[in-house]
Amino acid sequence: QFTVLVRNIPPDPDESVSELVEHFFMVNHPDYYLTYQAVYNANKLSELVDKRKNLQNWLDYYQNKHSRNPSKRPVIKVGFLGCWGEKVDAIDHYTDKIEGLTRKISTEKETV
């Protein structure tokens, strides 16, 4: 048994990468070919998911804070390190950020 690393497979409009690899090895090495495992670089996707999870934690925190005192919506400063800048509604801010990241994640999933 042996393992082969195949990189930079050119795209084909008629076949997927999986079909290309399968076809190539079945034609050229039918007696030795068993299976393959495709590996994709999903580092950027992982970073986006981690950022969204972090933002979701902050959103949950501010929603809990608001539920304890419904008469006052929590606000944050969106400037440098939260020290300067405009004060905005924290729940709306984090909701918008999460929605933006969700769109980016969907786009990144399509490229992976």
How would you concisely characterize the structure shown here?
The protein has 112 residues and is mainly alpha-helical. It contains three helices and two strands, in the order ααββα. It has a two-stranded antiparallel ribbon with strand order 1-2.
CA-atom Rg in angstroms = 23 Å
**Strand/helix succession:** HHEEH
Low-confidence stretches: none
Please state the average pLDDT score. Answer: 91
C-alpha geometry:
rod-shaped
Domain CSC1/OSCA1-like cytosolic: 1-111
Organism: Noccaea caerulescens
Protein name: CSC1-like protein
GO cellular component, one term: plasma membrane
Keywords:
single chain, two-stranded antiparallel sheet, 3 helices, 2 domains, mainly alpha, 54% helix, 2 strands, 112 residues
